[in-house]
């Protein structure tokens, strides 16, 4: 997985909008396979298969849909990474909707381990080169919601142990703390893939993103040269930002960037310069990566960013320049 690159797909992403989960899009997966992409990350919301807080009796018909995602990716030679974007007791978006707290409540922690044990049983026998388990999307900052490094480490280790007791070869992914940004040397020996993020500087990637609390009052984005969180951001700054992740890699962990992308309110020329540098850094480090998302305001298709060069490719209205940046920075 560490060298794989592709996209996030939101087929079972969030129950907020009361929309049912979606079937896999065969045209999108065909596009990936045709153009040399090999990685599909599926962030999921446990509430699609859970009635209230009855965490331990999932709806089988919804899990069957996840089975169909795996079948569709396997058929095309694509790698699937299954992720809990919203887990019992925690989500980086709308955490207040949760009844329990993953970091302080035993019932939420038990439910978390139960779900991954159930997935391990369900997919036992699927080759490790076809499926990984990305345990929890973007754990919080240290101290937020009662999360500490010690609590997080204990939960990730116990969950990994529960999975491996059933399926010893299943690749396991752990997202960085602080929304995916903080490296975790304490888990370097877990034998897991460490999943980072590619959103820094947020003043470029999330310009005018209304759901982000710090979006107000930002200067008009520029790159290179944006000053954000005490540093000047250019390619050298990006390399410096990932040094803690390189240290964890030197301790024996493998690194993959599970999400990155640029919101469509950032000017197109700025977005392309930043994304070009970012992906070239990933290529140089030999880290795979997945754009958030395939289609939408962060995507390669239908982002609506003014000034983008849009071409019809295999039936999709594709940002041609962004596609070329991807192809130029293929991780091999």
Model description:
With 332 residues, the protein is an alpha/beta fold. 33% of the residues lie in helices and 17% in strands. It has 10 helices and 12 strands. It has helices at residues 26-34, 60-75, 106-122, 149-166, 177-180, 202-205, 235-241, 243-250, 268-285, 320-328; strands at residues 5-8, 39-45, 79-86, 131-134, 172-175, 193-198, 226-228, 231-233, 254-260, 289-291, 310-313, 316-319. Helix 3 (106-122) runs parallel beside helix 4 and helix 9 (268-285) packs parallel to helix 10. The chain is globular and about 50 Å long.
Q: Helix and strand layout, with pairings?
A:
Elements (H helix, E strand, L loop, with lengths): L4 E4 L17 H9 L4 E7 L14 H16 L3 E8 L19 H17 L8 E4 L14 H18 L5 E4 L1 H4 L12 E6 L3 H4 L20 E3 L2 E3 L1 H7 L1 H8 L3 E7 L7 H18 L3 E3 L18 E4 L2 E4 H9 L4
Parallel strand pairs: 1-2, 1-10, 2-3, 3-4, 4-5, 5-6, 6-9, 9-10
Antiparallel strand pairs: 7-8, 11-12
Helix pairs in contact: 3-4, 9-10
Cα-based radius of gyration, to the nearest Å: 19 Å
Q: pLDDT below 50 for ≥5 consecutive residues: which ranges?
A: none
CATH classification, class level: Alpha Beta
CATH topology: TIM Barrel
Q: Give the oligomeric state of the chains in this entry, treating copies of one chain as homo and distinct chains as hetero.
A: single chain
Quick take:
This protein has 332 residues and is an alpha/beta fold. It has ten helices and twelve strands. 33% of the residues lie in helices and 17% in strands.
